[in-house]
């Protein structure tokens, strides 16, 4: 049945193909060893695959069947990135020593990540997720093929017998693999009233204290009032873990409610819960998280532009946190503060959430251990998909998931626009499965209908910006003035190299010499995204389409301008003999971008072919009523020395298959995903934004 999953298995979608590399059979056919090279399509974000430069991962698997001892041993290790990541897996099928009709299955694996482009913790999370899902599906797959064999009439496979010459040799008994001894249940344990599950748990760790005496029991009123419904086994796990902490942990012992969160996060597996709880306690001590609310004051930039805050409570009494993510300038916050300050602010929000849960438990007279988060995505656009910002978001999610488990009771995502599935595709693999089940997503105004906001929040406290009557004091966000941005040197000194990463390229634009980037599109409905800053001068941004490829790019020697451009380049693709409308066509209206502006946008391609992104020098128009130039034009022309502009840009193509499937649920959305550009400007006195949607 196991061999039937090769060369590929439809029940394992990521298992694409396999090839036999080596095979060996002993003369008596007792030993059969086969080695395969397996091709896997790992469920990882496109961004990570692009950074790694691979679409598939290859593993080598060696299966050793010993018919004499009736064992099958499976060993696997990774071939791809073996110098960066070492994965070893071992599985074995053996006969149960006490009942020959039973098959024992054991599985173990090890993971050692040496380095992975700065995404070590992300890779660890993906590997653990894939491994866990494979374990869960393993039994289902083997049963599927067993049933298939039965349908074909194969219900028995004759046991291997040695050739006649070897019979005397085979009569000697072969040593069996050691197995775990049966657990002996003492009579005293049953007298003390422990269930079988509790006895098994206490027997697995003899060194741990064994609960069961009346002194170790928690008061029933205390459980009902502060902890909620607990089974005897769950109560036993809580007592044991708390007692272990009291005996071994030298620092502050967390409250029962907090210990219980870690137990619930690991389905009351006491060993796993203890491991992540100890890691979290060490982390809290290292970063002084217990004192963050009393000792740390968030910078004024966060207080003014972080569009989130606490707002009453939901119908279940959970504290309600409102986040107007669509109105928040995530790129501006990261560039003004850096990743660490944002992370610290999110930690302070979580600590405040824990405090509010305790207060609401006292107010409502029942245990409240989590909060509800309402996220409004009105205004979300490609600016929010700025890669360093997404990277910072992933790190924040990782830290919160590890140290605040089971604190999110429900997440209400409102007014999700068309761009949301792209963000969700990047972020969702890093969110725990149990947490993802608590997400409710509404597109457009769906939240106002049946099953919407009123099912979870009282009408009296629905925020005013969502059509309610309650004034919400959450900051409105807005664009962070560029005068508050940190310099590259400051970020480098703090070891926060976010927006200065090499994915951004620098280009020079001259009068008569635009800079152009070629993008080949194979599948229609792909999405071209861009993000660029106009560092110097004013430019016009265009997008063109051509059915035929332009000639190889020619780099401007800059000789005509007598200007050298360190760190910048100039590439021209459109041949001077090409005619607009005949050889190529314009697919977007020209966008004029001023010096200092940041522009993000996207274009959904209608046809395959060649798309050209162009940054062109913008000439100042003269005043319409007179031939004399205006004062503003003269001053502006003086600022653009030698008719030179400079841009820093990043482009990426998102394949249609990466978002099309998740778009169907958002068809009712009113926000346009296609052809959206945002340009931002700021001055020392004010900041403003202009959205160009065509």
Describe the structure.
The chain is of the alpha+beta class. It has 4 domains: 2-152, 2-Layer Sandwich (Alpha-D-Glucose-1,6-Bisphosphate, Chain A, domain 4), CATH 3.30.530; 220-287, Helicase, Ruva Protein, domain 3; 290-483, CRAL-TRIO lipid binding domain (Phosphatidylinositol Transfer Protein Sec14p, 3-Layer(aba) Sandwich); 504-550 and 569-619 and 642-668, Jelly Rolls, CATH 2.60.120.680. It contains 19 helices and 24 strands. The strands form 5 sheets. Strands 1-2-3-4-5-6 form a 6-stranded antiparallel β-sheet, covered by helices on one side. This is SEC14-like protein 1. Its main location: cytoplasm. Residues 298-474 form the CRAL-TRIO domain. Interacts with RIGI (via tandem CARD domain); the interaction is direct. Interacts (via GOLD domain) with SLC18A3; the interaction is direct. Interacts with SLC5A7 (via GOLD domain); the interaction is direct.
